[in-house]
Amino acid sequence: MSHPDYFGTLVLFFLLSKIKTCQFILSVVELNYTTNGHHFGDCWLCNKTHRMKNLKIKSVYQTLLFVFVTLTSTAQEVKNPASDAAELAKKLSNPIANMISVPFQNNTDYGIGSGNGSRNTLNFQPVIPVKLSKSLNLITRTILPIVSQHNITGDKTKQSGLGDAVLSAWFSPADSKITWGVGPAFLIPTATDKLLGTEKFGIGPTAIVLKQSHGITVGALMNQLWSVAGSDSRSDVSQLFVQPFLVYNWKSGAGIGVNSEITQNWIASTTTVFINPNVSAVTKLGTQIVSIAFGPRIPVAAPSAGKSDFGWRASLTFVFPK
Fold it and tell me: Tens digits of per-residue pLDDT, 301-318?
């Protein structure tokens, strides 16, 4: 049986295994591979046989607690003064920090709609700052989703490929007590399957504002996209996205946070809301500085045909401090 929607998950697991978090990985593999009572055999990570138990939602929170302890300890491995873990964690909590980062964010959702479907989305989302002057920076972020879904569009159906990309560019002052940025956002029809995208090109404003103090980061990001070109056979796009977030980072680089992702589709008059708590840490993958994070995805509201029962998120971010 082929399960391509786990490819992104396995990539993250392989990379994380290099930082000696095997027990964490095994618990998530066991969680991820027991959907709907299916068993997928031996765990290749430890060359041992692991009997896959029935999936229980409470396992997400037990795993989250274990991961938090693991990340807190591994975060102390970063000792290079030039790449201080606390400072890096602070910058990573700021979506428009003046630092190159390359996140791979994996989102898995189960029990979607009446067909009890599943969807895995691996977001490749590099952040690249450009210094325009001594007082002004331009920070760009591209989000390119790699999607695989089962039983979403019908019984025993499957789609895999790229989704539509979103490119954001924020003009932000280099020195400000309150960090903020404004600029354009673009919807780019990069989907390789018409069921994974809108077939529309869109544009609109994006803005972000945040405050950082004593290890705490609080703020919000938003964008509004309207379609301006594309297939006449597809519905127009008018969509608002709002993401408030709150993060606390310890001096070790470990952190705990929560954000909410609110999407308002003005055309269909529907609202989708997720709450995403997570734990995170800054550590090293060999000589490469990375940030790792994990947490559940809690669905709060969505159209009945697209609402999931639960999900989880894991991310691996490659950090390139100046």
Answer: 999 888 999 999 999 999
Cα(179)–Cα(175) distance, rounded to whole angstroms?
A: 8
* CB neighbour class for 202 (10 Å; exposed up to 12, middle 13-18, buried from 19): buried
What totals of helices (H) and strands (E) does the chain contain, helices first? 4, 14
Residue with tokens 């159209």: 303
| pTM, two decimal places | 0.77
Q: What is the CA radius of gyration of the chain?
A: 20
Residue 189 identity (one-letter amino acid): P
Ramachandran region, residue 314 (left: φ > 0; alpha: ψ -120 to 50; beta: rest): beta
CA distances from 22 to 12, 17, 48, 127 (A): 12, 6, 12, 29
Distance of alpha carbon 124 from alpha carbon 292, whole angstroms = 15
